[in-house]
Automatic annotation (TrEMBL):
The lineage of its organism: Bacteria, Pseudomonadati, Pseudomonadota, Alphaproteobacteria, Rhodobacterales. One of its GO terms (molecular function) is beta-galactosidase activity. This is Beta-galactosidase. Keywords: Glycosidase, Hydrolase, Metal-binding, Zinc. The keyword Nucleotide-binding does not apply.
Length: 709
């Protein structure tokens, strides 16, 4: 099993440098007695598994009393698994500190916005910014890693578990002191710099020194400065990365041969372009597709799955999935739908097709106690392997057989959507104005490309843009000047850059810029100046305060808009007319920019809503409103198709998805049926089939087709 340290910079195009596709399951030997160890290992081997992950919640077993250690349970489990050829990934167990720790050192507990300390009995209740908790985390990481330093069956580590998924917030006195230290460093111990960045002359919010700085309590009684809120979330991201870095430093020192990753959950308050990802060998992403379906409700399971996976890949490149949904999932407040026969395998191939270089089915067996007793695994409560085991075995055999074709490839993208930028994700939240987030807007374009079979995904402007034909920037408020020259060079070489309303309208301090939007660098590039902007109501919804209107505690809408207050603005694109949503911008064009769409009613009638400016061999498009689903076919016809973008597979039936992984010497086309019914595969497919679930021309329900082109 080879995993090389990846010296390539973080990039959406970066595969994991390995010769092994990891396939297996998270394993919890602490949830059953020792009599299960041997038969579990035998069944895993028979299923074709080569890896397990364990110990992320077992600190209390390994250190039952402070400075008293007992690793015997995991020693036995690792040895039995190793005897059957199954390697182990260990986890630093810091998501769940033992009770003696929180009892003796209560200052490590998070405090919520109401001033209540977190309680023992759950998880992620310790504050990662706490110096005391960091010390205990470092100690258990060192003792645990030194114990397994020379164990040949331990090949890698996961830091913590889904950092910040339960919550990233804390409002304790410890957090406030650490926040103040962070600010002292950020602003060179100069309180005048902080007061400027936070707009201290507004509402008398200035400070005399850093010891006076408070944590931002929203609605206490009204909103805080956007600069204050943004810096708080920057601090949380800093504290999270520092907490992880403590552990990585120890693990690297103890055994440099181990690979190290983190399994991402909700991905809150993590700066993926900073040390958090740079210090890891690769990132990992826990993927529960049927949970995401119901949480997001965007229509169509494959669509939602593709978006989550494409976002995960944008952070640092190819990833592994340490937790892939295998069955029914539940915690006391909710439960998911259950994958139907064949769907568990299909969902695993969705992960593979969009950048996974390893998949582990959560979990090997379900627990009989605790807060996830109905989170099912590969094996059932009664210890009987059934259809989920059979599907896991089928997947393991198939993906292992084609690993040499798969590993070393990246996911194709013709259309890039700017993403994975921490400041822009957070800046919108600090002053949202009821407008969609940049990611909400991006999903409209991503959804259209998905349904059309166009290779699209998310990418940061600092990545290599040369493989792209189109790059869409979805309302990024903060534009860093150093990005402009790179994007201009890419456009001059033939790229199509599409900028959207409000882009570049705030600076790094979250202040509105003094120049007209989109700011001097982008105004020069796009030939556009925003003379005025204003809010429009969402399509088919009331506005005011939040998307979709205001609601009472029973979910009933209580704010209604009159027809006259809707003020529908319409525009022409091509030979069609559309209703604009969320915002209008009054644009002034210069330097050869030309109208590519015009407002068609009210006071803006005849003014450009979309502009186009030729730059070298390429072009810059500026869209002075938000995307809507209705306009996307015309948007593709006018701006995406002319850039040379064509679907990977024409005329996809609804429910069929297509994606491609490729390298310099090979291309693998994935065609997946996300429905339970057979779907006809579009004509014209050629290539050598690595996996083929077709019967005649029909791809069977939840079927998989992988072709080497």
């Amino acid at each position: 099993m080879k995993f090389n340290r990846n010296d390539r910079p973080i990039s959406v195009w970066r595969p994991i440098d390995t010769d092994t596709f990891l396939v297996g399951a998270p394993h919890y030997p602490e949830h059953v007695d020792d009599s299960f160890l041997e038969r579990d290992a035998e069944r895993m081997k028979a299923a074709g598994f080569n890896i397990v992950r364990m110990a992320e919640f077992a600190w209390h077993i390994m250190e039952p009393r402070e400075n008293t250690y007992d690793f015997s349970l995991f020693d036995r489990a690792i040895e039995v698994l190793g005897k059957h050829g199954i390697k182990t990934i260990l986890c630093t167990p810091t998501a769940t500190p033992p009770r003696w720790l929180t009892q003796h050192y209560p200052e490590v507990l998070r405090t919520d916005v109401r001033g209540r300390p977190a309680s023992h009995g759950s998880r992620q209740h310790a504050d990662t910014s706490s110096p005391v908790y960091r010390t205990h985390s470092q100690r258990i990481t060192r003792v645990m890693s030194e114990h397994y330093r020379d164990n040949p069956h331990v090949v890698g580590w996961q830091t913590d578990n889904e950092l910040n998924t339960s919550t990233s917030l804390s409002y304790s006195e410890v957090t406030r002191r650490e926040f103040q230290k962070f600010l002292e460093d950020r602003y060179d111990n100069d309180i005048a710099k902080l007061n400027f960045a936070w707009g201290g002359d507004f509402w008398a919010t200035a400070y005399d020194n850093f010891d006076q700085v408070v944590l931002p309590l929203d609605n206490a009684p009204v909103s805080c400065s956007p600069g204050h809120v943004l810096d708080y979330h920057r601090f949380l991201a800093f504290a999270t990365a520092r907490f992880q870095s403590d552990q990585i430093e120890i693990l690297r020192e103890v055994n440099p041969e181990w690979f190290i990753f983190h399994n991402l959950g909700r991905m809150t308050d993590i700066d993926f372009r900073g040390p958090f990802s740079r210090e890891l060998d690769f990132n990992a992403y826990d993927f529960y597709p049927l949970l995401h379906d119901e949480m997001q409700r965007l229509g169509g399971p494959g669509l939602v799955h593709s978006q989550h996976l494409d976002v995960a890949r944008s952070h640092s490149g190819n990833f592994i999935v340490p937790e892939q949904q295998s069955g029914f999932g539940s915690q006391p407040p909710f439960s998911t739908l259950t994958p139907e026969p064949g769907e568990m395998r299909r969902m695993a191939y969705s992960s593979v097709s969009r950048g996974a270089d390893g998949v582990m089915f959560f979990r090997w067996r379900p627990a009989h106690f605790g807060a996830e007793i109905y989170w099912m695994g590969v094996i059932d409560h009664d210890d009987i392997p059934r259809r989920r085991y059979d599907e896991a075995k089928q997947f393991a055999g198939e993906v292992t057989a084609m690993k040499d074709k798969l590993l070393g490839t990246h996911v194709r993208m013709d259309v890039g959507i700017a993403g994975a930028d921490f400041d822009n994700e957070e800046a919108h939240k600090t002053y949202a104005m009821g407008l969609p987030s940049p990611h909400d807007d991006a999903l409209i374009l991503h959804s259209h490309c998905y349904r059309r079979g166009i290779a699209a995904g998310f990418i940061h402007p600092e990545d290599d843009l040369s493989p792209l034909k189109v790059l869409y920037v979805p309302h990024w408020l903060i534009w860093r000047e150093e990005w402009t020259a790179k994007l201009e060079a890419w456009v001059r070489a033939g790229g199509t850059l599409i900028l959207s309303a409000r882009t570049g309208s705030r600076d790094i301090n979250n202040h509105v810029i003094h120049d007209p939007a989109p700011g001097k660098p982008l105004t020069a590039l796009a030939g556009v100046t925003v003379e005025e902007f204003g809010r429009l109501t969402p399509p088919d919804a009331d506005g005011l305060f939040a998307l979709g209107g205001m609601y009472d505690t029973n979910g009933k809408r209580v704010v209604k808009q009159t027809e006259s207050s809707r003020r529908k603005y319409r525009f022409r694109l091509g030979n069609q007319e559309f209703t604009a949503a969320h915002m209008y911008e009054h644009l002034s064009l210069s330097d050869g920019a030309e109208p590519a769409g015009e407002w068609s009613n009210r006071w803006l009638e005849g003014q450009p809503v979309i502009s186009r400016r030729a730059v070298g061999e390429g072009q810059v498009i500026y869209v002075g409103t938000y995307l809507t689903e209705d306009m996307m076919p015309a948007f593709e016809d006018q701006f995406i198709a002319p850039a040379g973008v064509t679907p990977m597979l024409e005329d996809l039936p609804e429910g069929m998805e297509v994606s491609m992984r490729q390298s310099d010497d090979r291309r693998l086309l994935f065609v997946l049926n996300t429905t339970s019914e057979p779907l006809d595969v579009p004509a014209g497919l050629e290539g050598s089939a690595l996996i083929d679930d077709r019967k005649g021309n029909a791809l069977q329900g939840y079927g998989v087709l992988v072709l080497e082109l």
